[in-house]
Write a structure and sequence with these properties.
The chain is α/β, with parallel strands linked by helices and 201 residues long. The chain has a single domain (7-193), classed as Carbamate kinase, CATH 3.40.1160. 47% of the residues lie in helices and 13% in strands. It has a 6-stranded parallel sheet, sandwiched between helices. Strand 1, helix 1 (14-26) and strand 2 (31-35) form a beta-alpha-beta unit. Helix 2 runs antiparallel to helix 3. The longest helix is centred in the N-terminal third of the chain and has 22 residues, at 55-76. The model has no long low-confidence stretch (mean pLDDT 93).
Amino acid sequence: MLVVKLGGSLLGTPELQSWLDMLAHLSDGRIVIVPGGGVFADAVREAQQIGGFDDAAAHHAALLAMDQYGLVLQALQPEIVTAVSDLEIAERSWQHRAIVWLPSRMALADDDIPKTWDVTSDSLAAWLADRLCAEGLVLVKHADAIDAAASIHQLVADDVLDAAFLGFAERLVCPVCVVGKPDHAAFSDRLACGPLPTRAF
C-alpha cells in the first residue's frame, strides 16, 4: 500500500487532475490518497480568528475540511472511491480501486494526535502510513520544485512540512518522498519501474 497526500492548494490547478487520473489508473487497490485541507481549512482558520474558539474545536473542524476536500477529489475523478475506516480501506483495496481517505472518523478516535494547528494533512498522512504499514509515503506539495537534497528536518524548518511531521514520520519504516505538483509524470514512471526515492531525515 502506498499513501499519497495531495495538498489542498492544488485545487484549481491542471496538475491536480493529472495526479488524480494517474493515481486512479495505476492504483489497482494499492494507493490511498490523503486530502489536504486547502480553502476548506483556511475557512476554519478564519472562523477561529473571528469566533475565538479553541484549537480542539478548530482541529475537529479542520478534519472535516479534509473530508470535504476528499469528496471534491472523488468528484473530480469518479473512478476513485472514498473510505472512512480501516475496514473500508481494506474492502476498497480488494476491489482494486484507488481510495481517497476521509480522515475525520479515524483521526478523531485517536487521542494521541495533538489537537493543534501543528498537525496538518502532512502529519496525518504519516500517521495513516504508519497505521497501514505502507510501502511508501508521498507528499505532493504546491511548489513547482522541491529541493532533492533537503532533509526532512530542513523541510520542516522551511515550513514545507508541518511542525508535527517529524514526530509522526520517525515512526515510519517506509520511504518518505516529497515532490512538487508538476512531478506526476516522473512519479508515474518511478511507480511503474522501481522503488520510490527516499528522503533523508
